[in-house]
Write a structure and sequence with these properties.
Blueprint (H helix, E strand, L loop, with lengths): L3 E4 L2 E4 L2 E2 H8 L3 E5 H14 L5 E6 L6 H10 L2 E4 L2 H9 L7 E3 L6 H10 L3 E4 L2 H14 L3 E8 L21 E2 H13 L3 E7 L10 H19 L6 E3 L16 H12 L5 E4 L3 H4 L3 E13 L2 E6 L8 H5 L5 E3 L9 E6 L8 E8 L6 E4 L20 E6 L2 E6 L4 H5 L13
Parallel strand pairs: 4-20, 5-6, 5-13, 6-7, 7-8, 8-9, 9-10, 9-11, 11-12, 12-13, 15-17
Antiparallel strand pairs: 1-2, 2-3, 4-14, 14-15, 14-19, 16-19, 17-18, 20-21
Helix pairs in contact: 2-3, 5-6, 7-8, 8-9
The structure holds ligand LLP.
């Protein structure tokens, strides 16, 4: 489903015209299509319908409560990486029995809370974490369900900052060291071995790394079986890429076919942790051109959205499409850099773009539904953007724009301090 379309010259998300939306809620503004998220979720589960599976949405990609609520309604499970994400999922009505808890740095408090509510599984990332989890569960008199997140040492062929399955990354347990830890976990009264987990990186646009990782995981599973350790599930993480520019990521049907072919007759439940693939293309980021300027022959659109709102271009050099919300045939096309007001040279949303727009016009930054708002900050004391969810012709404000009062609420002045001189 392509939720974004141009009608009578105006960009719409589902049935909602984006100009009026921006008028009503102001800019910068994130807008998400519920229909697009739903279509993706259904495509994913459909692709794996021949095999027991569960889609555990990676909450970090977009943790807005209404987005989580939608995924709860669709029947999704969740992949969380913090106590905060756990509480968000619970607030959205998510069932703890559908939650897997990933992340390299789980604290004692986070473990206690996750055990208390009864998450489905901890994806354990180190020996030290396994020992800590065992001790916490033992103290609480409960049994902790565990998977070991193994690092299969495959090259995900993606941006180094979002590649996680190479042995030099901080993530997971070296696959060669996993069998001994499984033995330990299988013998521990406070631990229950549930599965195995691997996640090799994000925005993958080829199938080979997934297949290579799966082969290595399956070799481990076979070795564990020989040692008398049976698993309920195999968690293959997330990582399936989307189209930002001219990438041609595999379809979910191709992804499923490749994985199911490799799995052969194994019947363990498959878990997946897609984030970007479910929500990335469902979102646009709206920003208005404040100024048009020229420096030494270079043209700039200075917009009201910035790196604090959408960090990906600044942090990874990522490409996002940028389009005027209204076509205006009489406006000349200029090659411009679209930059924000933040005082950093890396504060750009796009460079060298051919755009027919001018001051006051609204721009849509596309494929902004994943790792957009979630990575936003208050840098330069900017209020974070509002978020709107659309469904059909309806739109719902699902996070109001932050105010300066929100920003200042946690701070206070110190008593007058002695100043030298
Ligand atoms: N599972 C685990 C354990 C993860 O670490 C991640 C993402 C996912 C699942 C979801 O991956 P996805 O399906 O979204 O590729 N901020 C970066 C992406 C960081 C991804 C971190 N981990 C970006 O904007 O590209």
């Amino acid at each position: 489903m392509n939720a974004l379309s141009r009608r009578n010259g105006e960009l719409h998300l589902e049935e909602v015209g984006l100009s009026a939306l921006a008028e009503r809620h102001g800019t910068p503004l994130y807008v998400y299509s519920a229909g697009a998220i739903e279509a993706r979720y259904r495509d994913f589960t459909e692709a794996f319908s021949g095999h027991p599976h569960r889609v555990c949405y990676a909450v970090k990609a977009n943790s807005n409560l209404a987005v989580l609520q939608l995924l709860v309604q669709l029947g999704a499970g969740f992949d969380i990486v913090s106590g905060g994400e756990l509480e968000r999922v619970l607030r959205a009505g998510g069932d703890p029995a559908g939650i897997v808890f990933s992340g390299v740095g789980k604290t004692v408090t986070e473990m206690e809370r996750a055990l208390e509510v009864g998450v489905a599984c901890f994806n354990v990332e180190s020996e030290a974490e396994l020992m800590r989890l065992e001790a916490v569960a033992d103290r609480l008199g409960v049994v902790a369900p565990v998977s070991l997140r193994v690092n299969p040492d495959v090259d995900a062929a993606t941006h180094p900052y979002i590649s996680t399955g190479l042995k030099e990354n901080k993530f997971g347990i070296a696959i060669g060291a996993a069998a001994a830890l499984y033995r330990y976990a299988a013998d521990a009264d406070a631990l229950l071995v549930k599965g195995v987990d691997c996640h090799i990186g994000s925005q993958l646009t080829r199938l080979e790394p997934f297949v290579d990782a799966l082969d290595r995981v399956l070799a481990l599973v076979a070795a564990l079986n020989r040692d008398g350790i049976e698993l309920d599930h195999i968690d293959l993480g997330g990582g399936l890429g989307v189209r930002y520019h001219d990438e041609t990521p595999p379809t979910v049907a191709d992804y499923a076919e490749a994985i199911l072919a490799r799995l052969g007759t194994r019947r363990e439940t498959l878990l997946f942790e897609p984030g970007r693939w479910l929500v990335g293309e469902a979102g646009v980021f709206l920003t208005r051109i404040e100024y048009v300027k020229e420096n030494e022959g270079r043209h700039f659109f200075v917009v009201d959205g910035a790196m604090n709102d959408l960090l990906r271009p600044a942090l990874y050099g990522s490409f996002h499409g940028i389009e005027p919300v209204m076509n205006s045939p009489e406006t000349p096309t200029t090659e411009v850099d679209v930059v924000g007001p933040v005082c950093e040279s890396s504060d750009f949303l796009g460079k060298n773009r051919m755009l027919a727009a001018t001051a006051g016009d609204l721009l849509a930054v596309t494929t902004a539904g994943a790792y957009g708002f979630g990575m936003a900050s208050n840098y330069n004391s900017r209020n974070r953007a509002a978020e709107v969810l659309v469904r059909g012709e309806h739109d719902y404000l699902v996070r109001r724009r932050e105010t300066l009062a929100d920003q200042l609420a946690l701070e206070q002045l110190a008593p007058p301090l002695p100043v030298s001189g």
